[in-house]
Amino acid sequence: xxxxxxxxxxxxxxxxxxxxxxxxxxxxxxxxxxxxxVYKCALFLVLAAVGxxxxxxxxxxxxxxxxxxxxxxxxxQIFTQTQYLSQNYYNRTTSGQLLTRVTSDIDxxxxxxxxxxxxVFSGLITLVTSATIVLVxxxxxxxxxxxxxxxxxxxxGRFFKNNSQLFRLVQTQLANLNGVLEENLLGVRVVKAFVRxxxxxxxxxxxxxxxxxxxxxxVRVLRNVFPVLFLLSNFITxxxxxxxxxxxxxxxxxxxxxxxxxxxxxxxxQPVLQIGFASGVIAxxxxxxxxxxxxxxxxxxxxxxxxxxxxxxxxxxVEFEDVDFRYPEANTNALSKVSFTVKxxxxxxxxxxxxxxxxxxxxxxxxxxxxTSGAVRIDGYDVRDLTVDSLRSHVGVVFQDATLFSGxxxxxxxxxxxxxxxxxxxxxxxxxxxxxxISSLPDGYDTIVGERGIGLSGGQKQRIAIxxxxxxxxxxxxxxxxxxxxxxxxxxxxxxxxxxxxxxxxCTVIMVAQRLSSIRNAxxxxxxxxxxLVAQGTHEELLSxxxxxxxxxxxxxxxxxxxVS
Length: 565
Ligand SMILES: Nc1ncnc2c1ncn2[C@@H]1O[C@H](COP(=O)(O)OP(=O)(O)OP(=O)(O)O)[C@@H](O)[C@H]1O
Description:
With 565 residues, the protein is of the alpha/beta class. The chain has helices spanning 2-30, 35-84, 87-92, 95-137, 139-146, 148-186, 188-193, 197-249, 255-296, 358-364, 388-393, 409-413, 422-431, 435-440, 458-470, 488-505, 539-542, 546-564; strands at 318-325, 335-342, 347-352, 373-378, 381-382, 395-398, 407-408, 448-449, 476-480, 508-512, 524-529, 532-537.
């Protein structure tokens, strides 16, 4: 920016000197018939033109470089922030919204930094220097000229006041449009299955139409400002030529002075127009900056407390003490007065009807959310007193939906431990009962998955996700319905590996399970109903519980159906 400003200042200096050269050339050279002065003047004018070219280039090059760097920094800042924003934030914001901020909004800011900052800066400096010079040259003529500034200021100010809302609306509409696009790309199968292509096209087209309408409004308001400013500048030129011409005729002003004055006029009107042009970009960029900084400044709910404790080693004891939890936008508690203890090395299972809070319980352990009241403790420490990193490094989680990243299968399994040797990766894959499948692929562990790679079934993805977690150094393993997408036989295989793992690693396992068959040998089964812990015990102990028996009976029926099919 310093380079750009220096170039700009030099450019302005040359621009300020040039009319004086004309004046000198005309009054001292042409009028007095002194050819030597005319030649010298011509030479200086050529040098001034070369300098102008050089410094114009420097100014725009450095400004553009600055703007690219600003965009680079903002993109990095916003991405870093997205990595640390809490789950609550993502429940409220669609990724389409975030994508628009990272792309289109940052681009608006880049344009502003690349062009408008210097335009305004140079405009102001040119205006002040030119105004001072013309005031010294002929104050009467200068006052007529300078009259244009408050009038133009009023026009630009009104433009800002009336239209900043409109520019914000355009960016919001663009974000909504991207939201629909994103939803449709993710849910393309649902759209096809329900034959909703036409109505989705209509929905997108309507939103796109609204965006077009708003964009046209901005085009109209932008285009309306400039003719008014041009008209103003023409009036001023007219006034200067009229009044100045009379002054020359009355011998109050030399012809050279009038020519020089007329040149300065351009340096007064041009900045006014320049600032007018910039005002559109500034209004758009300011709306975009507001949206970008909304993300960058968003409060991160889950963060380290002052003087947090680093959990160096973890035995794996998990306690819930009178835990109440309510999602921010919900009216009722998802969990109420939940208390239980899972001892180190125990295998605990959480069961219950759908929507009773099973996933919510496990989300509280690695602090994806914080409890509303009560406490979650690990080895006796309130999880909120531990550093988030050390807490999560001891908790391995396999989610319901297995998200893989684009890259090789090996990269995906080694996601949290990139330096893991291949034999460890294979061991993890064997644990998740996916090694046979991977080995059968032509490229084995180097097979590319994700956008440009092979497609995997839901169960295969889930097993790779299990292997990814198994490879980490956890003391508490959370499996959130992670075998729901695999068949009963594979689930049993994974279950056997799990038993083996618990024996070898002495880790605590907390499993949310739909299939009761996979948790028969759990040390402790927590039975949830409508956010409350209604019973706990072993499978045999819970058989007498009505709800447990009902869930079991419904599953046996389903199991029989699976066998038939
Ligand atoms: N982000 C959220 N905002 C508001 N309410 C939520 C949110 N997520 C879940 N809930 C509500 O909290 C309750 C518990 O949800 P949870 O996902 O823990 O149930 P679950 O027992 O794991 O269900 P399932 O077996 O269907 O996965 C549900 O009533 C659900 O509607």
